[in-house]
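Morning - 6-O-phosphono-alpha-D-glucopyranose inputs below, output right after.
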Amino acid sequence: MCGIIAHLATDDAVNGLIEGLDRLEYRGYDSAGIAVSDGSDLSVYKRAGEISDLKSDLSAAPLTGKIGIGHTRWSTHGPPTDENAHPHTGDRERVAVVHNGVVENHRRLRKQLRADGHEFTSETDTEVIPHLIEEYLEAGDSPEMAFRRTVDDLEGGNAVAAVFEDEARIFASRDGSPLVVGIDDDEYYLASDVPAFLEHTSDVIYLEDGDVVIVEPDQLRILDPDGSSVKRSHETVDWDPEEAGKGAFNHYMLKEINEQPTSLTNTVRGRIDAEQEIVFEELDTGIFDGIEEVHFVGCGTSHHASLYSARLMSRAGICARAFRASEYVETSGPISEKTLVIAVTQSGETADTLAALREATNRGAPTLAVTNVMESTAAREADETVFIRAGPEIGVAATKTFTSQAVTLALLSQKIAGELPQATLREDLPELLEALARIPEDVQQVIDQNQAAELARDLLTYDAYFFIGRGSSLPVALEGALKFKEITYEHAEGFASGQLKHGPLALVTPNTPVFSLFTGEEIEKTITNAKEAQTRGADIIGIGSADSPGQSVSDAYLEIPATHPVCESLLANVQLQLISYHTADLLGRSIDKPRNLAKSVTVG
Ligand code: G6P
C-alpha cells in the first residue's frame, strides 16, 4: 500500500502536496517524494526516510510549482532507497509518475523497454510507467494519448498520477487501486484517500475503475476506457478532518478489519498463476534443498499464524513445529542445516523473534522471514524473505496482518510441500488454491453481514470467555481469545476443544460463554466438546457455515460463507475480530492502544 496525491493550485502546490502526504502517512512511510512544475520544466525531489525528512530537506532547498504530484511509499518491489522512491521519471525526464498498486506485467514490460534502449535506475515495478509514456511520446503521441495507452498496457490493480514537461495539466488513472478527486473552487486535488485534502475541501468525486482524469487550470475531464468523456457525481464528505485518518471508522482497528478484502487481494495477487502454480517471486527455492524439518518462530498473533501453517505442513507429511520465539532456545532441540527456520513477524522487529532467528543462524539453519516490512531487521538478517503485503497496520491488535500472514503461510506450506521429496501434495490442492484466491470476497461477505455488532450487546456481563477449536481451527481459537482479552480487558482463554474435559471444564459455568469453531475437518468432535460445556450451563456461540451441523447445537451462531475446510477458520477469525471489537467498543475500552501493550515489542 502506498499513498498518492496530486494538486493543481492557483499559486503554489507544494504545501498542499506535503500536507496531503502527512495525512496519507498511514498508507506507508518508508520513502517519499514530490514532482512540481509551472507548465514548463519538471523538478523532482525524493528520498528514503519519513515524510518529516522530506519536509526538512524541502524547507532547506524549496521547490515551487503550480501543479505537482507526491507519494509516500510502503515498499513492495525493491527496498526503501532514494532510487526506489517515487516520483519516477523516464530516460528523457519528460514525465514524472507516482503510483499505487502492483504492475503485474512489469517484468515483461521492462524487458521490452530495455530492448528498445531504455535504461532503468530503480528496482520498482512503477518505473516501467514513465518509460512507456516516453516511448509513446517519442512515437508521436500527444501526452493525453501516451498516458491513456500506457495505463491501458498495465496489468494488476493500479492508480497512477503523472505530470509532464511543458504541460500545465495533471493526468491520473484509477484501475483497481483507489483514487478520489477533491474540488476546492479553482483548485483540484487527486489522492488515494479523502483525508489527504479534507482540510481544503469536502467536495469529492469518487472515480470508477478504468477512469482517466485530466486536470487543467479551469476544468476537470474524466474519460472512460474508450476515451469518451463521462460524468461522475459530486459527493460531500462530512468527516472531521482531525479524525479523518480513520476514514468513516471510529477506530483504526475497525478500519483495518474492513480493509481485509483489499489487503488480502494484495496478499494473493500474483501468488497463484494461470497454471495453478504457487509463485513467490522474491524467494530462491534453493533454500528448501535437503530440508528435513521446519521450525516456525513468532510471538503473539504471529505465533498463531505459525501454528496454522505448521498444521498444514504436518498434514502434507512435513515434520513442522511452531515455537513461541521466547521459548525457542530452551525447547527447539537439535537444529541443523536440514532445519528450515521460518521467522513470522509482522513488524520484523520483535526482539524475541529476532533472538530466535539469530540462534537458528548461529546453529547453521537456513532461515526465512515472513514479514510485512521490507528492510525490517528480520528481512535483512534472514537468508530469504517473503512479504505478506498487508500494508501498514496502526491498531495495536493485529487484524489484517494476521489474515495476510495466514494466507501467505497457507500458500507457502503448499509451495514447500511441492519442493520436498518426503511431502505429499494434497489431492484437493486445486480447490484449496481456488478458495485462497477467493478469500477477499468471502471476507467481504462476513463484514457485510454485520452480525457481530448485534451479538456483542449480549456479551457484556459474563465472568470469562472461552474459545475452542480443533486442528487448523485451534490457532484461530487461540487468536480469538488473544484479541478478545487484549482489547476488552476481560478474561478470555483459547483451548483445544478435545482438552476441555482435562481441566478447563472446571471453569465452565452459565457465566462463561464458549465460542466454538465449527470449522475445518473435524466438526463433529468439536460439537461433542461444545455440548459438554453446554451441559454445564454455558452458552455456545458457534461459528461456521450455514450447513455446518454445529448450527443446531448453538445458542447463537455467527455465519461464514461456504468454502474449503482449510479456509473456514480464517473466515471465522474475521467474525471473532468483529466480536472483540464491538464488545470492547461497548465497554468503552481504548481499542487502538490497549493498556500495557505495544504494537512492536523490541525488548526481550
Ligand atoms: C506484540 C503485538 C502483537 C503482535 C506481537 C508480534 O505483542 O502487540 O499484536 O502479534 O507483538 O509482533 P510481530 O511484529 O513480530 O508480528
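Note: The chain has 17 helices and 24 strands.

O.
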